[in-house]
Design goal:
mainly alpha; 16 helices
Length: 341
């Protein structure tokens, strides 16, 4: 019996058998509905989003402090977007005439272009390797701190931001390893983006025809592949923060958790992305319009980095909100801990 347990072949067979028992799907074979149907009782999209917002608002002091702390550390270690580059882009887009406040909606188009340039990083200076490392570490720490704070708040503990900052970093290495897996799973989508750039440069998409259709089919398949793989890994980033949890165990547990529910969970994550995008649009475009109007009247204050500061505040708030959304979604999923039928 002891020899059998130590035999690596026997261990591998046991692992494979255990994996197949947990997963009802088989490659190139249709899965019967009774084998993959799995309950998942979740509130509606708006109701769950309101639940996330209410949870954060009821503990707004600590989460606002977390966002401010993250923003300050980002300024000190990474920096913010360049006001000079933003001003140059503004001058390039500015034309003569009245503005949106007097009925000229051309200003709205300029604001939209400035918003697109802002969120795509066109006004951000190229980061050095050290700044990129700092940026990644700060993002992971903000994620870990948000999850640690929420876990303890929902457990009924009274916590302070200091406790979260000092205690949340213990699974940093494990979280980093799971994040690497997430980046690997994004490679198919990255290939689709590279293909899109190449197809646009060569005029393949403009020509249309069968070649363009085949490209969009391939790009869609690559994107779906990344989304399919990443759905469980996002939950693994939560599970790996549990004390004593190893990365491979977290990945396996997350995979078991989403089996039979992957599409429903993926739709929730896509909803969160759309919600954040709309919030950014509703906040940034009016502020850009007001910034254009005021600085058009008083050019002496054109040096004030209004847009970079607002973008930094929104980025800090976004990472806290997204971390909280994913954690609360994870809690809802484990509350309905049903096995595949």
């Amino acid at each position: 019996m002891t020899m059998a347990k130590k035999n690596p072949i026997v261990l591998i067979k046991k692992r494979i058998t255990s994996y197949l028992d947990r997963r009802p799907h088989r490659s190139f074979r249709p899965t019967r509905r009774r084998d993959y149907n799995r309950s998942l009782n979740l509130p509606g999209y708006w109701a769950f989003t309101a639940h996330v917002n209410k949870t954060l608002w009821s503990n707004r002091k600590i989460f606002i402090l977390l966002a401010v702390t993250y923003a300050i550390l980002t300024v000190l270690l990474v920096g913010i977007a360049s006001q000079d580059m933003y001003a140059t882009l503004t001058d390039t887009l500015r034309t003569t005439g009245t503005n949106v406040f007097t009925g000229d909606w051309g200003e709205m188009g300029r604001a939209s272009l400035l918003f697109a340039a802002t969120v795509t990083g066109s006004i951000t200076q190229t980061l050095t390797e050290t700044q990129q490392i700092y940026s990644g570490l700060l993002g992971l720490l903000a994620w870990l701190t948000s999850v640690w704070l929420l876990r303890n708040i929902l457990a009924g503990h009274k916590v302070k931001l200091r406790d979260g900052l000092y205690s949340a970093g213990s699974p940093l290495l494990s979280t980093f390893l799971v994040t690497l897996l997430l980046l690997v799973q994004m490679l198919p989508f990255a290939l689709a983006l590279i293909g899109y750039s190449a197809a646009t440069a060569t005029g393949l998409l403009a020509a249309g025809g069968i070649e363009s259709m085949l490209f969009w089919i391939a790009a869609a398949l690559l994107t779906v592949t990344s989304l399919y793989l990443m759905t469980s890994t996002v939950f693994a980033l939560i599970i790996v923060t549990i004390p004593g949890m190893y990365p491979l165990t977290a990945i396996k547990t997350a995979g078991d958790l989403v089996i039979g529910r992957r599409l429903r969970i993926l739709k929730r994550l896509i909803w969160a992305s759309l919600y954040v995008s709309v919030i950014w649009i509703l906040i940034m475009i009016p502020i850009i319009l007001i910034d254009l109007w005021i600085k058009g009247l008083w050019s002496t204050i054109s040096w004030v980095p209004t847009i970079p500061i607002v973008m930094l505040a929104l980025s800090s708030s976004t990472i806290v909100w997204v971390s909280s959304y994913v954690y609360l979604l994870y809690r809802k999923v484990i509350d309905d801990d049903a096995n595949p039928a």
